[in-house]
Design goal:
Glycerol uptake facilitator protein
Length: 218
């Protein structure tokens, strides 16, 4: 239960920091500031709840950890429930602060959304960059990795991913992070939510296969 509480809190914090930066401070801090907000949220939670749950706070990461053989399926599913619930609560708190559910940092693509990239670009970005993210996570938390630096490596990787992809999809690489804002915003965001569930999970699976088949094991 402690692990699930940690994952719930961690995912809520990720939405509050990352999406909150976009909604409440985006005009002042720009895309670079938003990217760092997401990354620093991961760094904070990695050291805050990492010793308890491993700080997945992302269903795609939990899937990757499972595929790599580092957690059982039942625990992965329980993590998913805690992560989706945490993201929804984080988005709800953000909506209260913002005074609206119209803009909660929801992901998207196509006409009218940031760089107006097409569906194929959004799909490829989310799959490929989630795979990269999961590779970094599994590698930096492996037994042979330097101790104490995983949180920093993972957080900075998420910053880099956002610097590359905010204009493409707003950057999900995390089904839970997309779920909370989209569910409350509704409409177009909810209609496009499927991609931000399917693509990150596919990317998480892809990244984990390198470890499942020992291609990146020391």
């Amino acid at each position: 239960m402690k692990k699930l509480v940690a994952e719930f809190i961690g995912t809520a914090v990720l939405v509050l920091f990352g999406c909150g930066a976009a909604v409440l401070g985006g005009d002042a801090i720009g895309q670079t500031g938003i990217a760092f907000a997401f990354g620093l949220a991961i760094v904070a939670m990695a050291y805050g709840i990492g010793p308890i749950s491993g700080c997945h706070i992302n269903p795609a990461v939990s899937l990757g950890v499972f595929v790599a053989g580092r957690m059982p399926a039942g625990e992965m599913l329980r993590y998913w429930v805690a992560q989706f619930a945490g993201a929804l609560v984080g988005a709800f708190v953000l909506a209260i602060i913002a005074g609206s559910t119209a803009s909660l940092g929801q992901n998207g693509w196509g006409p009218g959304y940031l760089g107006e990239y097409a569906l194929p670009a959004a799909l490829v970005f989310e799959v490929v960059f989630t795979a990269i993210f999961v590779i970094v996570i599994l590698g930096s938390t492996a037994a042979a990795a330097p101790a104490g630096f995983a949180g920093l490596a993972i957080g900075l990787t998420l910053v880099a991913i956002h610097l590359v992809g905010i204009q493409v999809t707003g950057v999900s690489v995390n089904p839970a992070r997309s779920f909370g804002p989209a569910l409350l915003a509704g409409g177009h965001a909810l209609a496009q939510l499927w991609l931000f569930i399917v693509a990150p999970l596919a990317g998480g699976l892809l990244g984990a296969l390198f470890y499942r088949f020992k291609a990146l094991e020391d």
